[in-house]
Structures are given as structure tokens and as C-alpha cells.
Amino acid sequence: MKIVFVVNNKNNRLAKVLPRLELFGHQTNIGSIKFLYTLKKKHAIDLARNATENRCNYMIAVGGDGTLHEVINGMMQSNIPAREHPIIGLLPYGSANDLARTARISASIEELFEMIQSNTTQRIDLGKIILQQSQETHYFINIAGVGLGPEVVQNLEQTSSILGSGFNYFKHIIKGFLSYIKKEISCTSSTWKWKGKLLQMAVANGRYFGNAICIAPDANLKDGEFQVVIFGNLSIWDYLKNFVKLKKGVTINHPEVSYHKAKEVMLESNDPCGIEADGEYVGLAPATISILPQAICFLMPPKHQHST
User: Fold this and answer.
1) Are residues 48 and 142 in the same domain?
2) Is 261 left (phi over 0), alpha (psi -120 to 50) or beta?
3) Is the pTM of this model over 0.90?
4) Which of these, 7, 26, 186, 206, is most buried using a 10 Å CB contact count?
5) What is the DSSP letter of 100?
6) Domain end point (choices 66, 86, 119)
């Protein structure tokens, strides 16, 4: 059995964990274990593509949602057929760990190795974004955000916070609100269409984004469809009034907030409107976002849904 750990080397939280992880890995007679360390942004994509093509059995992202995002994109870009892809795992040591919340994955090294040994896996859906102008394809496991989210993501990438990631996200959301000009966008699925001024849209496979904001309470990693949550022409005051509800995963009752289900959505906008995936900026609309049902085999406990 070949197990590859793709480790986000820029992550300070990992300094204490890595020696323990390496020691634990080498003490466990589970097969060959390899640690690969990222040296720059997007490096995990190359590392994961190579590890997939070298036929590893398990590939574990050690870091946050961004590291997992890169690992999945690397695997999906490989020339290995999907049925022969490795099983993906996550040791969540990122700033947000939003996917881990939905999937109920803990940061316990012991639990991770127990899941590997017992092959505790679930088949889960993936999202796929095709940017129409560049014809680039990006995959995501958690949520694709349109509107304000991508601008927050770009601002976050340029800063670090001594007050912790939760405060940093919140600060940038508020800062984004104050400078963000809502874009006119249309979103079309096979059964519904929405058009108007957009504050924020979440095309959700997982339930949380932006560091524990439960934007899509009915999203399910295994049901073969997205929950699409649209915040239209909403004011900053309305957003703040509902922030506690959002954190708790309560559905917002407001004329400018709507919830939909879709297997595929077409996004179109005359304004330059950004798209992010799993907290990584990917590009501009127009784009098609579609679900790939049960596209990956993921290490996670069986009862993963509707936990907070």
C-alpha cells in the first residue's frame, strides 16, 4: 500500500504536528509512506498529479481547504482513469477547515490512520467549473462562490492577521461590503433562472464557507446536486442582522435571499464578476458549474451530514 502525504509547508500550525505525524506514520506498519512538501502556491497540484500517476493508493492533504483543493485538482488533471484514482484524505490544519466541518473530519492523526487501516471511505460529489473565455477547468470539493466572495478571497491572499482567521475573514467581508459594487448576473439551471444584482452566490457541495459560515444548510456531499444560495440586492445592514443565523445554519427569510437545487448552472454577466472555489480565486464569469456525482473516494466517517 502506497500512502502519500501532501503537506502545506507554508503552514505555521503544522510545525508541532509534523514530527508527530512522521513518527506515527513510520511506526505504523501500514505500507510505504511518503511526505511531499509544497514550496510555493499551487505546488500541491503538481505534487498530487505526479503522486497519482505514480499509482499511490491513498493521498492525504495536510493543511486546509486550499491544500485539499490543489490536491484534488492535481489528481483530476492526471492521465490516470478515474476508477484508478487514489483514495483522498484530509488532515485539517488550515485557517478555515470548512470542508472538514461538513465531513466531520477531526485533526487527529490517530483517527486518520484508523480510517486508512479500516478503509473507512465514502464516495462523494465534486464540482467542476469551466471558464468560458479561457476554457480552463477547475474542480472543487466544497463551495464555489460568485460575487463578493472572490473579492474577499483576493484581499485575504494579500494579508495575514494576528487576531486569528475568524476575525480576518469577518473583517474582509465587512471591508468588501463597503467597497463592493454589486454585479448584474444571470444564473440558469434546467429548472429555474435567477437574474439581478448579486451580492453573493454559493454553489454548494459542502455546507460551510468563509470560516464556519453555514451558508448552505441543506447541501449534501453525496446527493448528486448542489444547493445554490443567492444573496441578491442585500444591504450590509441586512447581512449583519442575519450573520448569527448564517453561523448557525438557519435559513434566511428575506425577499433578496433564495435557495435552489441544481446539477448544473450557467453563469453570465456583462460586468467582470469573479468566481472562487474552495477559497481559491479561479477567474471570471461566464462559466458553467456542474456536479460530478460520486466522483471521488474520500476518507471520512459514515455519519457526516448535518453536524455543526
Assistant:
1) no
2) beta
3) yes
4) 206
5) H
6) 119
